Every structure is written in structure tokens, then in C-alpha cells.
């Protein structure tokens, strides 16, 4: 039985966890001192050796990404933190920044030092104003404490940190679209190559990392590689935040070593809401193919989830019980992707537009079984045909729901409409009964 | 061979659909496939624009070193690599399905209005939907609709529901024209091309967006719903507007030009042209055509006459008289040659000039000594380390030259210096270093190009100083006049001091050349006069020994030279060869109707001296070129010039060839010092591309995008005049005044700039000169 392993979330229950004092009380900002005493290349090597992989979804080794930055090129380097969290179900970075913003700032200082950047940026989802204010305050406090600005810790390292509010586009979570948006342009993915490591922000070598990846860095510096590697599985090292939401008794963040299973998390958290049972779930947000009860024991690490046909993604465990109509869920997700498609590529722009219309009809019980083949064929014409992965994410819930719940789609047609009571799946249905 | 040409380009061999092809490194897969004759469907791809990878129509399967990409790749964004194997729709079922899938998606929201769409019949979407699409759509949903059309400008209309969002128009405007006034707005299925709220799509090149639009989303207001492509007769043509030398295509239906498009010439205009070249062709319909020869009767009125009568009247009036010839800068090479030969042979004079604009003796000497032999080309601009613009505003005066310089500025930061009196939009785009006098220009090498505009003739000594500057550094000199016919007129000797082929009139061998070619025993030796001197001589009165009694005028507006030009013609015998009724035909004694460019064959020499020959577009037309009529008059006079057709003229010009003897000497003069007098300001001006020019008449949609006429002054000057941006000033000379709103620019406090021939600012007519001292007050 895997245990929870609170690291980033260890002190969230303390009233002042978000303050610099609260953070320092538990050893915060000591890793900066350690890191600044090291050679920058040694810091990169340490993160490489730790096996830390990107927590934003793709799981790319963080240290390798840092190592791609050409050194001695007489160019400015930038570290950009992707805090544009906005996928349905994904909700780890916002609570992390709300409760423990200084872990990110400390990670930024270390990361910038390692890649030799003197200016870092946090691209934060603008709608989440309370988080924005808290991070703003944390940055201000870090400047006051001499942790940002000129000559940090007397070690001759300068770092400016800019907080930027995104204007509400899911596509700006794609790293090159994020860079365009940060530069003041409309956020649309850029052609690659050149990759951001060569020509990123303002055409300068740039590392773009997820909030959780960077926030994990101080703990690795402080506790060492061996400690980090003792957690997790063979190729997925360390701890991570699992975000449990949906039809569960206790939704929230559960920090655990990689490789824990949903069954374990449900046991630790109090399970599916009372009187109901698990029907399907997402392992990593709406863009990852859904799982069912048969996947309860899949190890939730990069390899395990992938082997079972989905992706670890952002570890957003959205739980749906038997009251949920899977067609309706797929429709809702599709509406999200249609709304968020940036419009650049034909398959995504036009495809999501069509998918929504088809799912509307299917949910209303219109059409025939042949329409399901048409739907799958359309998904095949969309997946992997666009520039970025947004459209791939859009078709993932549709294809996977058809894989596991084809009969339910057909049931809609036989029934001439949705056989589910939409109210039964809501939270207020429980309150009322 | 220059060192660059010797540099080995690395070649790469790839396999596409089982066939090997070797292409230079950096070639995109889609283009390598073209080399094999494999057509991969595409929309956003354009060889002259940066890759976008947006439409996803060109997906192919690619494998490198045995490792296959997991997904089909956009062949318009991927350069070839060694050991690359590409499978297009022809050999990969995955690529084929991907392409068909994208095509189906492109069509789900596309309206089925092909039967009424301008693009129908010449539409890449229509064609590729047939070649690479499904026969039937499976879409049963609701199509996206928008209000239509939206005016992007007065001449470009947008039907958003037809748009496939390929971003060709936005990329063109940004990358090629440097006018990023259109952009993609909104997101997802609502993404659309849009303009800024406050900045209008005022680009001189906007018409290219219509031409490269792969669907019918962007249409030209003047052509919209006018014709179907299969009803048009398309002919290759040449642009008659400026000396850039664009290749063009003219589309004609039932004897009328309906549309003009940019032709392709990699060495000149690539695939672009300017809006004037594209849309300014209605001048024929705008003014009343001269349809029949006319003779002024005893009653003082013009009366229609037969051709023999009119030819005889013209010959009678000219024969034995002291007559001059004004050719104008718009004649074709063949017509200018006709005027040149007519003056020398039929009239026995060297009083001939093509310049219907301010000019000087210094320029006459410069033309014979320098301009006639210039071999500078666009390629020299491509390779230049520094381009100096003197008396020349390329965006307004030769827009394709501007595009060429801009391309190099963008590509490799080409250094540009300009003597523009204020930071004009063109100068800003070229990041030009501005200088106030020629002596301030520095940093020239033998790889530099010094471009001289015709306006240098307006300042005494400027041409001399400019030539000296270039000669000292060994830099290349290019002289770029504004009008399309000027270089051809020089080469055909339509100027006092040159005979055809650049032969100096004073050179005995050159004269012998021409005498034998023309089978005449002698050529006039009295030095000839310039346009302004000819006009003055015409007004002297017949008793004066220097006076002229008669003049042959071909398409010249004397008001382009001075505001007294027309009055100087009043008491003299005038033979006018004209397309339409004009101020000159109104006072002429004999009016002879001639063909417009589209009705005749001919050749324009661009500023490089390269010929662009064209055949008549309107098949019903009589090809009544000026040279044929001149030939008939000469015959009647009794001194035939034997140029019965344009083709015969071409043969004679070719047989003559170019002069290879000693060139005429350019007699330099010293630069006039600038004289600031009292409170007056020094006026400078040039013609904006879109203005009140005669050849732009009748095209309101084009005129709608002309830049608003403003007077540029410095901030200090504005303060001392008590005016702020947008307030009016009155600019006065002894003869008249102009009232214009001011624009505050970084420029000398002693200078003011106004457009030369725009709405509310016709400098010659209103002030009597193009440059000089003016009084400026708040209006």
C-alpha cells in the first residue's frame, strides 16, 4: 500500500503557508543557498540525475530541457513558467500557488541560475485573480527579502521575475503559443524548429516549465537525489500532486509517489460518493483517454498509464459514477475544445465544430449506428493532423468513450434521447435527497 | 564569376514516392515533390511567403534514417534531409486519407456559392476539392455564416465564410509589403481576417492579397461579379504606369479590360505588383475617347475628318516649318523611336524631348552621359551592401523597386540611406538613414547602389554631386524615372542630344551609323532644345529667329511642366496624337486618335533597360500606334520614315543595335547652395503613388485608398506657426496657395513637404513650381 507523500503540500494546513515566513519556517529558501554555492552546470546535472520529469503533461525530463540551452552564446536566456492551467479537471497548479507560492519562486531562482537566465516569467491564468494576487505578493516579499533582484544572496546572481496574466486561452498553455502571447501577440503555436531552447521568448534561448516541475526543484536540492529517487517507480521518479475531483467523498490534492493507483487514492480519500460506484475516470485531465473501473490498479506513473492506453497528463483524476451519461460528458468536453481551438489548423478548427454538432445529435438520440463509424472516422481525420496536440486531446475522450461505452451511445438512439437523469449526477441531487 | 556564385550549395537527395530527387539544402518537401511532378495539394503554402503549416492540406508521411514520424507531416514546413523517404498521397494511404479528411473539413463550412463566386473556375479550393477530396460531403450540420462582404478597404472586400484561414494575405501584407494592417482575429471556428479599428488597410500592394487568396474570400471591388474566368481572354502584358517593369496579365472580355493581375518575373516583380498597376486601367473609359481624326476649321472649331484629310492637314502644317516634337514619358519604345526619326527625318530638327516634367540642361547631359548606358539591375540591389536613394521615394515612385529593397532590408538588414526630407512611410519601413544633403552620404563601396530619381533634376548640381559620390566609391548608379516610357525614349533618341541606341548626336561615327540605317544623306546638326525651351520657343512669335512655328505633341500634359505650358501653345500649329480629349486637343489644329496600350503592341524598357514587349490585348483594336500615324505624315510631307507597323519598327531598332563607341561626356555642374530667405520655408514634394494622375482616372475604389494629403513640417515649425497635428496651414507662392492639414514629422525646421499632385495639393497648378521658397501660415 503506497502512502501519501506530502512535500509541496506538506504545510498547506497551516494558516500562513503562503507567506514567506511560513515557507521559511519549514526550511524554505535554504535550497537557494545550496544551489547558488554550486556550479550552474552541477545544478543542471543534479536535476538530470534526479530523474525529475515535467509535471505539465508531457513528462519530458526537466534537467535535459535545461541542458538544451546553449551556454556561452552571449545571449539573454529566459525561464518561463507555464501557469496557464485550464484543462477541465486539472487543478493542481492553482492550489499549489495559492497555498505555497514560494516553492515556485525558490524553484525559479534555482532554475534561472542553472540555465543562466537573468529574467524569468510566470505566465499565469488571468481569471484566477486570487491566485494572481497571492503570487504577486509572494514575488514582492521575495524581492524585499533579497531573493530576487540584484546580487541574490551576495552571490553576484541577478534575477528579475515578471508575473504576467494570461487573457484566458487554453491554447496559451501550449509552450510556443504561450511565448507568442507573452510577447504580446495572439497566442497561436509557432512552427518548430526553431525550438524554444534555441529561439524562444524574443527569439532567445528559453526554458518553459510547468509550475509543479519548477516547484519540485527546491525539494530535490534540499533532500538530495537519493531521497527523490527513493520515491516513485523505475522511470517515473519522485512525488507528485494527484488532483481528485468529481463524484468522490473528498475531492482535493493528494500528493504521493508516482505509481500510486486510483484504488489506493480512493481508499486514502474516502472513496466514490456514497451509494454510487465508479463508472469512468480520466487519469490526467480531459485530454487523456478515459479509464473505467477495470483500470483501478493501473500504476499512475508515465509508463503505467501509457501502457494502459491513456496518458498520465496532469494527474487530474476526474471521477464519474454510474449516474453520468458518457455521451453527455464527451459532448461537454468537445464543447470546451471547440471553444478553445485557436483556429490555426483546419482539422482542429473545423473538426471540433463538427464534433460538437455530431455529439449533440447523438446525445439527442438522433442518427444511426453508422454515425458512430462516421464519428470515429472524423476523429481519425482530426487526431495527429494538426500542428499542436489540442485536437488530439479533443478526440481522446470521444474515441475512448466509444471504446468502453459503445452500447451507451446506441442506447441513446434506441431510446430516442438520453436515458440518464441529468440531475442525478449533480451535487445538488445529493443535497436534495 | 562572383565569389557567391562559386559557393557550392549543398545538395540533398530524397526519395519521394519511390523516385529520387536531388535538391539544394533547405528546400521544402512540397517543393522537392514539385520537381518530380508530384503535386501535393496546398492552400497556405506560397513559395514567396514564410511557411505557416496552417491548412494541413499537404500532409505526407515522412521517414528519416529509417525512423518514421508517428503522424503525417505538413510538407510545406519540413525541409528535405539526407536519407529522407517521403510518401505522398500517391503512395501512402495514410497521407491520402489525411488529405481527404482535411479537404472535407475545409468544405464543411464553405458555402456552395461557386456559381456566383469570382473565384469559381480558377479556384484552388474548387480544383483541389475535385482532385483530392471526397466526392460527397458527410456533413449534415449547420454551416458557419457571417455578414458579407466586409470592406477591408474601398477596393478589397472580404467574404469571411469563404475564407480557409490560410493567412496568405496577412503574411503577404506583413512580410512582403511591410503593411501589417490586416490580421487574423478571434479564435477557433470564429477566427477571421480583420482590420484594425483605427488603422485602415492603406497599402499600395493590397491587390496582391486578392490575387494570392486561394479561395474567393478576398475579392476586388472593381471586378466583383463582373465576369467568369472562362469568359475572359488573358494576355501577357506590361504595366504602363511606372518604370519598375512589372510583368502583367490583362483579362479582357468583349473588347474591354476587366481585370489586371501581376504576372511572374523572378528578375523583376517576382509575383507581385502595386495597386495602381492592378486597378488603374479605367482611364480609357473615364474620359471621352478621340474616335475620329479632327481638323480645326475656319470657324475655330474641331471637325471630324477622314484620315487622309487629317494626315494631309498635319503634313501641310508641318512641312517647311520650324517644328518641335514633345513625346511624353509614356510612349512605347517603338512609338518613341517613331517620334525620334520623325523629328530628324521629316522635320529636320533635334528639337525633341520626352520629358514632360521638370528638367534641366544638366539632366540632358546626364541622360546622354550616364543614364543611357546604365546597366544596373534589380540583382544589384539584391546583392548591394548599401542602397542610397536620392531624389527618389521608391514606395511612391517605383513600388516594385521598393519591394525589392524592403526584401533585402528584412532578410539581411540591408543598409539604406535616403535624402527624403522627412521620415516617409517608405523610409521608415526601409529603416533608412535620412540625410539632408548628398555630401552627408557615407559608407559607399563598389557593392553599393546609388539610385537617382528624376526629381534630382530639380536641384542644380544634384545629379552631378550624386554621380560624383557614386563614382568616387565605384558604386553602381541606377537612374529610375517615374514613367514607364522614359528609358525607352532615351534609347530611341527622343531627346535632343541622342540618336537611337544611345548614339551621341555630336559623334560623327554615330551619325553615320544612323544616316546609313535610315538611308538619309544628312541629319540635323543644330543643337536641339528641351521641352521647356521648345514651349518657350513656340510662344516667341514667328518673327523671332529662335522661334518654333509648329509642334507635334504625343500624350503630353504641358501642365506637368509649368502652369504656363498650355498658354505657350496657343498661337502655334499643334498636331496632337491623343487617346482621349484633353487640354491639348482642345487647342490643337489637327487631332489624331491613337491606340491605348491595351489596343496596341509595343515595348516598354524598364529602368534597368530590359525590354518588356507586349502584343495588343484587344483583338478588335486596330493597333493604331503613334508610329504608324507618324509614318503616314512623314510620307505626306515627302520625307518618309518607313515605319508602317510596330513590327517593322521593332525590326529596325533591333537591326540598329546599341552604340558601342565613345559615350557622351556628362558635363557636371556644381551644387547650388541652399538659400533660406527670411521666414520662408523650402518646399519639397513628390507624386504619391495614388493621386490625381491622369491614368488613375475613373477608378474610385482605388482612389479611396490613396493616402490623405497632408503637409509635413517639424514640431518646432508647428509650434512657431501655432498649429497642431491635423490643423490646416496655407502654403503660398506668388501665384497661388494650397491649404492642407499638417502632419508633424522629424525634419528640418526650414522645410515643408506636400504631395505634388493629390486632392487639394496640385503643386504646379497651385503654386507654379515644384520646389522653392513658400510662405506658410496657419489657415
In short:
The complex is a heterodimer of chains A (433) and B (779). With 433 residues, chain A is α/β, with parallel strands linked by helices. Helix content of chain A is 45%, strand content 14%.
Q: Output the radius of gyration of chain B.
A: 28 Å
User: In which range does the helix fraction of chain A lie?
Assistant: 40-55%
Tell me the number of helical segments of chain A per DSSP (H or I, 4 or more residues long).
17
SS field, number of helical segments of chain B:
25
Q: How confident is the prediction overall: mean pLDDT of chain B?
A: 94
Shape of chain B: globular
Topology summary:
The complex is a heterodimer of chains A (433) and B (779).
Chain A: H1 20-25, H2 30-36, H3 40-50, H4 62-67, E1 78-83, H5 93-99, H6 101-115, E2 119-125, H7 129-144, E3 149-152, E4 157-166, H8 175-182, H9 196-199, E5 206-210, H10 211-230, E6 239-246, E7 252-257, H11 262-269, E8 278-282, E9 291-292, H12 302-307, E10 316-321, H13 326-340, H14 346-363, H15 369-382, H16 390-415, H17 427-432
Helix pairs in contact in A: 2-6, 2-10, 3-6, 3-10, 5-6, 5-7, 6-10, 13-14, 13-16, 14-15, 14-16, 15-16
Chain B: H1 3-6, E1 11-16, E2 19-24, H2 29-35, E3 59-64, E4 67-68, E5 73-74, E6 84-87, H3 93-108, H4 124-132, E7 150-151, E8 156-158, H5 168-176, E9 182-185, E10 192-195, H6 207-212, E11 218-220, E12 233-238, E13 247-253, E14 256-262, H7 275-279, H8 283-286, E15 294-296, E16 302-304, H9 307-318, E17 323-326, H10 333-346, E18 352-353, H11 361-369, H12 378-383, E19 386-390, H13 394-397, H14 399-412, E20 415-418, H15 425-429, E21 433-434, E22 449-453, H16 462-473, E23 476-480, H17 486-491, E24 498-499, E25 503-504, H18 508-518, H19 531-538, E26 550-554, E27 573-578, H20 583-587, E28 590-593, E29 602-605, E30 611-614, H21 626-637, H22 646-656, E31 681-686, H23 700-703, E32 711-713, H24 715-721, E33 728-732, E34 737-744, E35 751-755, E36 757-758, E37 761-762, H25 763-767, E38 772-778
Parallel strand pairs in B: 1-6, 17-18, 17-26, 19-20, 19-22, 20-21, 22-23, 26-27, 27-28, 31-35, 32-34
Antiparallel strand pairs in B: 1-2, 3-4, 3-5, 3-6, 7-8, 8-11, 9-10, 12-13, 13-14, 15-16, 15-28, 24-25, 29-30, 31-38, 33-34, 33-38, 36-37
Helix pairs in contact in B: 9-21, 10-21, 10-22
Amino acid at each position: 500500500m503506497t502512502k501519501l507523500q506530502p512535500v509541496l503540500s506538506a504545510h498547506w494546513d497551516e494558516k500562513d503557508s503562503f507567506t514567506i515566513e511560513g515557507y521559511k519556517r519549514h526550511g524554505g529558501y535554504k535550497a537557494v543557498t545550496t544551489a547558488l554555492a554550486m556550479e550552474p552546470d552541477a545544478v543542471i546535472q543534479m536535476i538530470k540525475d534526479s530523474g525529475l520529469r515535467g509535471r505539465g503533461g508531457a513528462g519530458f525530463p526537466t534537467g535535459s530541457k535545461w541542458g538544451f540551452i546553449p551556454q556561452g552564446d552571449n545571449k539573454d536566456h529566459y525561464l518561463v513558467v507555464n501557469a496557464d492551467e485550464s484543462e477541465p479537471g486539472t487543478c493542481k497548479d492553482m492550489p499549489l500557488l495559492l497555498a505555497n507560492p514560494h516553492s515556485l519562486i525558490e524553484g525559479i531562482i534555482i532554475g534561472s541560475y542553472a540555465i543562466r537566465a537573468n529574467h524569468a516569467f510566470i505566465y499565469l491564468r488571468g481569471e484566477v485573480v486570487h491566485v494572481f494576487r497571492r503570487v504577486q505578493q509572494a514575488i514582492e516579499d521575495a524581492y524585499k527579502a533579497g531573493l530576487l533582484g540584484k546580487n541574490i544572496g551576495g552571490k553576484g546572481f541577478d534575477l528579475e521575475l515578471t508575473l504576467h496574466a494570461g487573457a484566458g486561452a487554453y491554447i496559451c498553455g501550449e509552450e510556443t503559443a504561450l511565448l507568442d502571447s507573452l510577447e504580446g501577440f495572439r497566442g497561436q503555436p509557432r512552427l518548430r524548429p526553431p525550438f524554444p531552447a534555441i529561439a524562444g521568448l524574443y527569439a532567445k534561448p528559453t526554458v518553459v516549465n510547468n509550475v509543479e516541475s519548477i516547484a519540485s526543484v527546491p525539494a530535490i536540492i534540499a533532500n538530495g537525489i537519493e531521497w527523490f529517487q527513493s520515491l516513485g517507480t523505475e522511470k517515473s521518479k519522485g512525488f507528485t500532486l494527484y488532483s481528485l475531483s468529481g463524484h468522490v467523498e473528498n475531492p482535493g490534492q493528494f500528493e504521493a509517489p508516482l505509481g500510486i493507483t486510483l484504488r489506493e487514492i480512493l481508499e486514502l480519500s474516502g472513496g466514490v460518493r456514497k451509494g454510487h460506484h465508479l463508472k469512468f475516470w480520466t487519469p490526467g485531465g480531459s485530454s487523456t483517454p478515459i479509464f473505467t473501473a477495470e483500470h483501478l490498479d493501473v500504476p499512475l506513473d508515465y509508463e503505467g498509464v501509457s501502457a494502459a492506453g491513456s496518458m498520465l497528463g496532469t494527474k487530474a483524476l476526474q471521477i464519474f459514477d454510474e449516474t453520468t451519461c458518457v455521451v453527455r460528458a464527451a459532448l461537454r468536453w468537445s464543447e470546451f475544445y471547440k471553444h478553445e481551438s485557436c483556429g490555426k489548423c483546419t482539422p482542429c478548427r473545423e473538426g471540433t465544430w463538427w464534433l460538437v454538432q455530431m455529439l449533440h445529435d447523438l446525445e439527442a438520440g438522433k442518427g444511426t449506428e453508422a454515425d458512430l463509424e462516421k464519428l470515429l472516422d472524423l476523429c481519425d481525420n482530426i487526431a495527429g493532423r494538426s500542428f499542436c496536440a489540442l485536437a488530439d486531446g479533443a478526440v481522446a475522450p470521444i474515441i475512448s468513450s466509444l471504446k468502453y461505452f459503445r452500447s451507451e451511445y446506441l442506447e441513446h438512439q434506441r431510446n430516442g434521447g438520453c436515458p440518464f437523469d441529468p440531475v442525478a449526477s449533480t451535487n445538488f441531487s445529493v443535497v436534495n435527497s | 564569376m562572383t565569389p557567391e556564385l562559386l559557393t557550392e550549395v549543398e545538395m540533398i537527395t530524397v526519395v519521394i514516392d519511390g523516385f529520387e530527387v536531388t535538391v539544394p539544402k533547405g528546400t521544402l518537401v512540397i517543393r522537392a515533390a514539385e520537381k518530380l511532378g508530384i503535386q501535393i495539394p496546398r492552400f497556405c503554402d506560397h513559395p514567396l511567403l514564410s511557411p505557416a503549416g496552417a491548412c494541413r492540406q499537404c500532409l505526407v508521411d515522412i521517414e528519416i534514417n529509417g525512423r518514421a514520424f508517428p503522424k503525417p507531416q505538413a510538407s510545406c514546413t519540413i525541409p528535405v534531409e539526407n536519407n529522407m523517404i517521403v510518401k505522398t498521397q500517391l503512395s501512402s494511404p495514410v497521407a491520402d486519407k489525411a488529405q481527404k479528411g482535411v479537404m472535407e473539413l475545409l468544405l464543411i463550412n464553405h458555402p456552395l456559392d461557386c456559381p456566383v463566386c469570382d473565384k469559381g473556375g480558377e479556384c484552388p479550393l474548387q480544383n483541389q476539392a475535385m482532385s483530392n477530396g471526397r466526392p460527397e460531403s458527410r456533413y449534415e450540420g449547420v454551416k458557419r455564416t457571417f455578414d458579407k462582404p466586409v470592406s477591408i478597404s474601398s477596393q478589397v472586400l472580404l467574404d469571411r465564410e469563404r475564407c480557409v484561414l490560410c493567412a496568405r494575405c496577412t503574411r503577404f501584407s506583413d512580410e512582403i509589403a511591410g503593411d501589417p494592417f490586416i490580421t487574423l482575429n478571434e479564435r477557433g471556428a470564429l477566427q477571421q481576417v480583420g482590420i484594425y479599428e483605427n488603422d485602415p488597410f492603406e497599402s499600395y500592394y493590397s491587390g496582391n492579397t486578392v490575387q494570392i487568396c486561394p479561395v474567393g474570400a478576398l475579392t476586388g471591388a472593381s471586378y466583383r461579379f463582373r465576369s467568369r474566368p472562362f469568359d475572359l481572354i488573358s494576355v501577357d502584358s506590361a504595366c504602363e504606369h511606372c518604370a519598375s517593369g512589372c510583368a502583367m496579365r490583362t483579362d479582357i472580355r468583349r473588347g474591354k479590360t476587366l481585370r489586371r493581375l501581376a504576372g511572374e518575373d523572378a528578375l523583376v516583380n517576382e509575383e507581385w505588383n502595386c495597386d495602381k498597376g492592378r486597378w488603374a486601367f479605367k482611364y480609357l473609359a473615364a474620359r471621352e475617347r478621340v474616335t475620329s481624326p479632327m481638323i480645326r476649321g475656319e470657324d475655330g472649331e474641331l471637325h471630324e475628318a477622314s484620315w487622309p484629310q487629317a494626315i494631309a492637314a498635319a503634313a501641310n502644317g508641318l512641312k517647311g516649318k520650324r517644328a518641335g516634337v514633345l513625346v511624353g514619358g509614356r510612349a512605347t519604345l517603338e512609338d518613341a523611336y517613331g517620334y525620334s526619326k520623325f523629328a530628324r527625318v521629316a522635320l529636320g530638327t533635334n528639337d525633341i524631348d520626352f520629358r514632360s516634367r521638370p528638367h534641366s540642361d544638366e539632366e540632358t547631359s546626364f541622360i546622354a552621359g550616364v543614364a543611357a548606358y546604365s546597366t544596373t539591375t534589380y540583382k544589384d540591389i539584391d546583392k548591394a551592401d548599401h542602397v542610397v536613394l536620392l531624389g527618389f521615394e521608391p514606395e511612391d515612385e517605383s513600388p516594385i523597386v521598393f519591394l525589392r529593397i524592403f526584401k533585402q532590408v528584412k532578410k539581411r538588414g540591408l543598409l539604406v540611406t535616403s535624402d527624403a526630407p522627412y521620415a516617409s512611410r517608405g523610409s521608415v519601413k526601409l529603416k533608412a538613414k535620412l540625410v539632408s544633403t548628398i555630401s552627408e552620404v557615407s559608407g559607399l563601396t563598389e557593392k553599393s547602389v546609388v539610385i537617382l530619381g528624376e526629381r534630382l533634376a530639380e536641384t542644380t548640381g544634384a545629379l552631378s554631386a550624386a554621380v560624383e559620390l557614386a563614382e568616387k566609391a565605384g558604386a553602381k548608379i541606377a537612374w529610375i524615372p517615374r514613367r514607364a516610357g522614359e528609358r525607352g525614349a532615351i534609347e530611341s533618341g527622343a531627346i535632343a542630344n541622342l540618336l537611337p541606341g544611345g548614339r551621341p548626336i555630336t559623334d560623327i561615327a554615330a551619325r553615320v551609323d544612323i544616316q546609313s540605317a535610315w538611308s538619309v544623306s544628312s541629319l540635323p546638326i543644330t543643337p536641339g532644345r528641351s521641352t521647356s525651351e521648345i514651349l518657350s520657343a513656340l510662344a516667341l512669335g514667328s518673327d523671332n529667329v529662335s522661334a518654333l512655328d509648329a509642334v507635334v505633341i504625343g500624350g503630353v500634359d504641358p501642365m506637368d511642366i509649368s502652369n504656363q505650358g498650355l498658354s505657350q501653345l496657343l498661337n502655334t500649329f499643334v498636331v496632337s496624337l491623343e487617346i482621349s480629349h484633353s487640354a491639348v486637343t482642345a487647342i490643337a489644329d489637327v487631332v489624331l486618335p491613337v491606340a491605348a496600350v491595351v489596343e496596341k503592341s509595343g515595348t516598354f524598357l524598364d529602368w534597368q533597360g530590359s525590354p518588356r514587349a507586349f502584343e495588343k490585348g484587344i483583338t478588335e483594336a486596330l493597333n493604331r500606334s503613334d508610329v504608324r500615324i507618324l509614318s503616314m505624315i512623314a510620307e505626306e510631307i515627302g520625307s518618309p520614315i518607313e515605319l508602317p507597323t510596330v513590327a517593322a519598327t521593332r525590326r529596325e531598332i533591333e537591326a540598329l543595335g546599341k552604340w558601342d563607341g565613345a559615350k557622351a561626356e556628362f558635363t557636371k555642374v556644381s551644387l547650388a547652395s541652399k538659400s533660406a530667405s527670411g521666414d520662408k520655408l523650402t518646399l519639397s514634394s513628390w507624386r504619391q503613388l495614388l493621386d490625381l494622375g491622369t491614368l488613375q482616372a475613373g477608378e474610385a475604389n482605388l482612389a479611396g485608398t490613396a493616402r490623405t494629403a497632408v503637409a509635413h513640417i517639424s514640431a518646432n515649425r508647428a509650434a512657431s506657426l501655432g498649429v497642431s497635428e491635423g490643423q490646416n496651414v496655407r502654403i503660398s507662392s506668388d501665384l497661388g496657395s494650397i491649404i492642407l492639414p499638417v502632419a508633424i514629422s522629424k525634419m528640418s525646421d526650414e522645410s515643408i513637404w506636400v504631395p505634388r499632385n493629390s486632392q487639394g495639393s496640385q503643386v504646379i497648378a497651385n503654386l507654379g513650381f515644384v520646389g522653392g521658397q513658400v510662405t506658410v501660415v496657419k489657415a
